[in-house]
Each structure stands twice: as C-alpha cells, then as structure tokens.
Design a protein that fits this description.
The chain folds into two domains: 2-89, no CATH class; 95-179, no CATH class. 57% of the residues lie in helices and 0% in strands. The chain contains six helices and no strands. The protein starts with 9 loop residues before the first helix and ends in a 16-residue tail after the last helix.
C-alpha cells in the first residue's frame, strides 16, 4: 500500500493477518516462510488473488483510510528488492555477458548434443556457475535453436566437403530428416 511505504508496516501487516486468521478463521498454527530457493516466494501474489476480507482487515488494523488502495507493483521498490537479492546471493546483472556465456556453452555442447532442452540445461548450468542472472527462457530457447542449426550446418558442410562430389550420394543415404525437437524421424 503506497501510503504505508517506508513506515515499517510489513511486520504489523503480518501480525494483523495472523490475528485475523487465528481469531476469525480459527487456525491454530501458521507458518510463514520465505526462501530464495522457493519460486513461489519470489513474488507477491497478484492483488486479485488476495481475498478482499484480508485486504480490509490489514487496512483496518494498520489504521489506513478506506480510500488507500492496496498495491505492490512499484517499479522503484521492485528494483531495490532485486538489487538486494542479487547482492545477497552474489548474482551479476550483465545481460550481454550472460548471453555470451550461454551462447558459448550451447555452441560447445551442440557438437555432441542436438536436443534443445539438453543445450538449454547446459547453458543454465554454466550461467549459475558464473553467477549470472538468468536470461528469459525464450532467449535461451531461440539461442539454442539458432546455434544448433549453425553447428549442424557446419558439421554437415564439413562432411560434404570431405566426401566431395563423388561421395555425396553415399552420404545422403545416411542422413535422415529431423523429426520433432531435432531427433531423427522414425524410418518405419
């Protein structure tokens, strides 16, 4: 709630919700946990998923006026929280550097592997080892597909070049058209 920012309201809000849950809902025990390893803890719930009764109770308990809207989408606060998490876990925000590390890892692995999820997992491992903030999955997916195509073209070009014009018909009988997700199509 914007009017409550900077006034150490979060502990009072937790007490208010806890009191409401014990007294009104009838719970006997509440556990509140936050972990950076738990993806559900990485964000606040969408406001539309918070019951109106909870919002009203917190507002009353904190002594906030009825017209004060519940919001938790301030860009400045979100960026400050992301910076704190990065510092706490030693994560580096360098999108260009992360893309280079991921591309290098995918290119190296693509000579031995052809399945995009395998290539993406290898890139993720390298990014985590290097302490980079992870790029979006769509970025890694597009990167893996593009690099895999480049490496495959390079491999096939090398084979065709070594085979020469006379050996090319024999090579073509060994190649299969790729099926789903880059795996060879069934021949039967």
């Amino acid at each position: 709630m914007r009017a409550a920012r900077g006034r150490n309201i979060a502990p009072r809000a937790v007490r208010a919700v806890s009191t409401w849950m014990f007294q009104s809902v009838g719970l006997h025990r509440i556990e509140l946990c936050h972990s950076a390893l738990n993806p559900v803890s990485w964000y606040f719930p969408a406001l539309e998923t918070v019951p109106a009764a909870v919002v009203d109770h917190v507002r009353r308990d904190l002594g906030l006026a009825e017209e004060i809207a519940a919001v938790h989408a301030a860009a400045r606060t979100a960026e400050r929280h992301r910076d704190l998490v990065r510092r706490r876990f030693g994560v580096v925000l360098d999108p260009a550097g992360a893309r280079k590390v991921a591309a290098d890892a995918i290119r190296e692995a693509a000579y031995a592997r052809n399945h995009p999820p395998d290539l993406i997992n290898i890139a993720l491992e390298r990014l985590v080892e290097s302490c980079f903030e992870l790029p979006a999955f769509s970025t890694l997916d597009k990167m893996a597909s593009r690099i895999r195509s480049e490496v495959n073209a390079e491999i096939f070009g090398g084979i065709a070049g070594r085979a020469g014009p006379a050996g090319l018909p024999g090579c073509r009988s060994c190649w299969t058209r790729p099926g789903r997700a880059g795996r060879p199509a069934s021949t039967g």
